[in-house]
Amino acid sequence: MNDYVIEMLNITKTFPGIKANDNITLQLRRGEIHALLGENGAGKSTLMSVLFGLYQPDEGVIKKDGKEVKINNPNDANALHIGMVHQHFKLVEVFSVLDNIILGAEDTQAGFLKKKDARKKVMELSEKYGLKVDPDALIEDISVGMQQRVEILKMLYRDNDILILDEPTAVLTPQEIDELMEIMREFAREGKSILFITHKLNEIMAVADRCTVLRKGKYMGTVDIKDTTKEDLSRMMVGRDVSFTVEKKEKLAKEVVLEVRHVTVPSKLHKNNAVKDVSFEVRAGEIVCLAGIEGNGQTEFVQALTGLEKMSAGRIQLCGKDISKFSIRDRALAGISHIPEDRHKHGLVLDYTLEDNMVLQRYFEPAFQHAGFINKKAVRAYTDRLIEEYDIRSGQGPVTIARSMSGGNQQKAIVGREIDRGTPLLIAVQPTRGLDVGAIEYIHKQLVRVRDAGCAVLLVSLELDEVMNVSDRILIMYEGELVGEFDPKYATVQELGLYMAGARRQPQFGGKEDEVTDDE
Amino acid sequence: MNNSKTAAALKTMLAALICILAGLVIGFIVLLVLAYTGIAAKGEPFTMLDVIKTAYNDGFKQLLMGGFYLKPRAVRNEIALAAPLIMTGLSVGFAFKTGLFNIGAAGQYTVGALGALIFALIFKLPWYVCLLGAALFGAVWGAIPGFFKAYLNINEVITAIMFNWIGLYAVNTLTYMGGNSPMYNLKTTKTWPIAAKSEWSVIPDLGTTYFKKPATIAIFLAVAIALVLYVVLNKTTFGYELKACGLSKTSAKYAGINEKRNIILSMTISGALAGFGAGLYYLSGVAEWQPLVSTVLPSMGFDGISVALLASSNPIGIILSALFISHISTGGGMMNANLFPPEIADVISGVIIYLCAFLMLFRNALGRIFTRKNKGGTK
To answer: The pTM is what?
Structure first.
């Protein structure tokens, strides 16, 4: 009997112009948690798509239990008991949990669904692994954490014993992450094998047995976690030393730049308000972080702040000036820079060239136009400078179409463009989403640099590491309300997690002293 | 720097040429079928060669030669036809560039024609004032769907289609008025020829063989406007804003561009272009408006969509594609009418437009071939 359940040997996959996987070997043992680590574009997804039958490798073989197999489509993968939870869940929103679990693997009798049997099996699995779900709830009504449990149950229902989890922790609170890891360990004890795709090193150190590292499509090696350190892993992944803690001086908070009073924003999704009576201020020279789980009103709040959405009540004051009624353009001119949450939807005109995008917020300034004619030379010179300063890499420099650039470089372009405007307030919404450690480190440094230069920074982030590392002050938002304020020096991730999940609320935000309510 | 840009332009041109070629081939096949049925109906013995000869000599040759089949008269017609076609093409193309589908060019063209007629026949103003009047009328008709789109979020296609018909019958009513309209000539059942009422309202010609009425300087005006639009779209902040709105409304909004204002402006300009085109046509004395029989919208408006699509909305390309469309439809009118209906020209342009819908596909496929070759070259 071979030691390995799945072996991907010398896999090479080439796309036009790029070698996504170059001679990669991945061997998965029975009952192990195997992490797959790599930056964006390192080839993790391609490799998993090959294993899942979505792509055919140009070279190399896949073996299951030592026997060579051919996986032509996801059904083949399923037949080999390979299951995958995608980063973006593949669930039918308007179906119930149970229907989603059995979808595609329905047992029928004379054409009728045998739902009773299915329900029994699902409940058994749910009980056995502590994957609490309500089988009759609709997917659209349940939390992201529960949706993930549904995805995992889907794999178990199909008797999969090779489980691929693609960035499973991105959407979870710290407590939920702990639970998930416990469940993963339980699977491993039972002899199931888990492939765990992530770029969060802490999680790998906590839960994985071994880790395979990819860099730019190449295989960097497989290491035993117990013999390695976080620093070693990141060096393998990035190719250089990366610092995890952001170095920064004590903050020198000065005058109030942004003052928000009783801001309320109606929701587009439901009848309630998305943001309820939020008040706080941001001072020059400090980074205030608005933390919370996705969908708790942060997006709407920022849109109201920048003018993209209308607020129904409240007042916004920037540098002592009331800007509540200002248009988007006037707010920007009054001194707001905005690194938007969605770089494709808002941050860039994807079909414009890089240089056209670099002046998206200032093409109308005298420096870049004369009598309505754009001064292409000035735009080019400006773009060249930003490319140089912010290390924006692209195929053809200033004339590269933004769409063709990598996500990291698109983000750097936006960060550079917004920071360079030198406004008193910088709003950065998830500025490092989907970026690799190298780019994250870079963007964090930039945020600290502008803060040291006397800019007020409002950071909205879902990543607790980022929240703890970068900010000077943490505000936690839950269901559209502020529920707590922390100094990162004296707060723990666990504590923040409780507030983010709505289990606690500080007295000044309307909570009782030491109040603890149950999560679900 | 412009390597990528010229490469992209070349790809687009090549793709358009492939569409045209395929359209012509299909057109020739249709002619062959018609020639075959026509000859077979006579009951005399014939060979396949006869069929091919007939199809070519009586139909395809005219199509290919266009106005030059009967020069110089037909060439002048072709030129007269091309000028308004360029304008409606620009109207649709300009809207496309800003993310709007101006299917209302036909209506704006119609209302623009009314403007031209009012300013020429009633006020008897010089031709350049009449042209501006035509543009103004078209602009108003374009602005209305723009307004609905911007403030009430009603799709511009729906409003524009309705306003096409409202425009058509309003124009019919106003030019006829029970026979009492000062623009209406009871004898010919058409509006009065411009030259008969107001000499200086007619757009002048150059008096040369090819640029004699109805081929006036209208064509140069149209080309000049195409060039101006090219500059506006590519060199100005205004064009930058409009294109940003067209490519990504959300990003434009984020950048503080007033997208509502831009939608209305874009539709207004688009309407003005179509109206101006009608001015060029009716002030050149090519034809008169026939209020009693005009129950369909002028094809000029919809042909503008074809012209814009074929040119991928590039103003310079629109000049060329309008010339081409006017070339084959002029040719189509000169085919042997016993065998081939002149609508064959429409079939061909229809096929070409249909293929144009796949233009993007072609272009991407060509792009892939090009990049592959380039990659091979550098490695």
So the answer is: 0.76
